[in-house]
Design goal:
The protein is mainly α and 496 residues long. It has a domain of 221 residues. The protein contains 20 helices and two strands. Strands 1-2 form a two-stranded antiparallel sheet. The radius of gyration is 22 Å and the shape is globular.
Length: 496
């Protein structure tokens, strides 16, 4: 067992990547689903094991081919990457539990093996980003996950997914190209691609102008990939027209992985070496975060399409994450990373509810769910409870991260009270757009001609597991808080 334990960082990528071609060979859709689910659960078990290891000691290093870094490829897992590994593999596993009924409705049986293979490649790419310690390999895994995500989004029956995924492809390609240009500039000046070695060698670069330009390219490129406002234009349509289970998976983790890269490279490479970069970073992210929180929440209040409403809500929630990071403090980063975890729980549960509704409804619009709570009581009860977490009601996971964010902003100086007011106002705006759905589902008369029934058991099971986790981590938040606090201290520790 100890020999296997030593290879877990590599297996985190290998398990889903090697399962992908096997799924295509199997062809029978239920066996494909079972194999994909098994691979995802194995990846989740590996992520949990790595998480336990990093909490018990230092970061885990793994040398590919036994070549020492920086000459060889190094994999590294610390509390920061462990937190994101839990988010990525947990959201994949939870989405797959009840995926069959929704995917049977959205995707032809003959194409499902290819779909599941793309799902596994996206999972492998996201895991690879989180375990690699090499800036160029981050780009490689970023492209693997992105190309697979384009396939997943365009796989459904809605033809409007094609222009949506094309926009996503263009913006994603620009973001990845900007990132690669920035990494290339750093490699030109330092001769290394290992992130830790980059941080050391940049100190010896006489002219820092190229490094500053590289920081700009990398930051803009990753902000595009992470849908940071106003570079979010690809996200609403991509989430709206993707198959419902794909939206569950990507909404819970995809943008957060891009934010992970942004924070890791910025705090490991640029913050310790560029004079005044903490102010540049803060002034870049803070105004965009506030605009995202207010504007995206306003749009969500008036959006009639359920998936697009939650997609705009995701833009606002990304604003919360970047707001905490822009404070450049242990408290702010703790709140930011904690909100990554808690938002994945809340938004994953809400999009699972949308998948439940999608089984019976052909159009996911608010006016189509009038009185639906009587026909789908378990589904709409799950929506109400997950909505409480998104709003940040005490007792839910969403409250924990918003409380930490409010505490961090109060420590930020004279701007603190104004930032707290914006957080509270945006939470009230979340009450408005969640209540719009609840009011129509519970208090409007149902269409008597509509044939609506409760969602299938396994889809409801995964939905209620997600809802239960929102309350479990709202009442017992020790694990995500410990991981987020440790990761925040790790990031801030690089600035000394």
């Amino acid at each position: 067992m100890s020999a296997l334990q030593a290879h877990l960082p590599a297996l985190q990528v290998i398990v889903p990547m090697l399962t992908a071609p096997l799924v295509i060979l199997v062809k029978e859709r239920r066996l494909c689903w079972a194999a994909t689910l098994l691979a995802s659960f194995c990846s989740l078990a590996i992520a949990i094991s790595l998480c336990i290891d990093v909490l018990n000691g230092d970061s885990i290093r793994y040398l590919m081919g036994s070549w020492p870094a920086p000459w060889g490829i190094e994999l590294r897992v610390d509390t920061f990457s462990a937190l994101l590994l839990l988010i990525v593999n947990g959201s994949s596993s939870l989405a797959l539990i009840g995926a069959t009924a929704s995917l049977d409705r959205d995707i032809e049986s003959s194409r499902q093996p290819l779909f599941y293979a793309a799902w596994l490649l996206a999972l492998a790419g996201l895991n690879g980003i989180l375990v690699t310690a090499d800036a160029f390999n981050i780009f490689v895994f970023m492209e693997i996950s992105a190309l697979a995500s384009y396939v997943l989004i365009s796989a459904g029956p809605n033809r409007r997914a094609l222009p949506a995924v094309f926009k996503y492809l263009i913006m994603g390609t620009i973001g990845a190209t900007f990132y690669l240009i920035g990494v290339g500039l750093i490699y030109l000046m330092t001769g290394t691609l290992n992130i830790a070695d980059m941080a050391l060698r940049i100190q010896d670069v006489a002219d820092q102008k190229a490094i500053l330009v590289a920081a700009g390219f990398i930051t803009i490129g990753l902000a595009l990939k992470a849908a940071v406002f106003p570079m979010h234009i690809w996200l609403p349509n991509a989430y709206t027209y993707a198959p419902n289970m794909v939206t569950v998976f990507l909404a819970a983790c995809a943008t957060k992985v891009s934010l992970y890269i942004l924070l890791r490279i910025d705090f490991f490479v640029f913050q310790p070496n560029l004079s005044g970069h903490d102010f540049q970073f803060s002034y870049f992210l803070l105004p965009m975060s506030l605009l995202a929180i207010l504007i995206a929440s306003t749009v969500a209040m008036f959006e009639p399409n359920l998936k697009r409403l939650l997609a705009w809500s995701s833009v606002a929630q990304i604003g919360y994450i970047t707001l905490g990071a822009s404070l450049v403090s242990v408290a702010g980063l703790t709140a930011s990373l904690l909100h990554m975890f808690n938002h994945a729980l809340a938004k994953g549960a809400l999009f699972l509810v949308i998948a439940c509704l999608g089984i019976s409804l052909s159009h996911l619009r608010i006016d189509n769910i009038a009185g639906i709570a009587k026909q789908m009581p378990w589904t709409m009860a799950a929506f109400v409870l997950a909505g409480l977490s998104l709003i940040g009601v005490p007792g839910t996971a969403g409250f924990i991260s918003k409380w930490y964010l409010i505490t961090a902003t109060l420590e930020a100086g004279s701007w603190g009270p104004a930032l707290v007011a914006i957080i509270i106002i945006s939470s009230l705006m979340a009450v408005v757009y969640i209540w719009r759905i609840v009011e129509i589902a519970y208090f409007q008369p149902a269409d008597e001609q509509a044939v609506v029934s409760e969602a299938p058991f396994f889809l409801l099971l995964s939905t209620w597991i997600a809802v239960a986790l929102n309350f479990y981590f709202g009442l017992s938040a020790a694990l995500p808080v410990e991981l987020a606090d440790s990761a925040a201290r790790l990031l801030m520790g690089q600035m000394r």
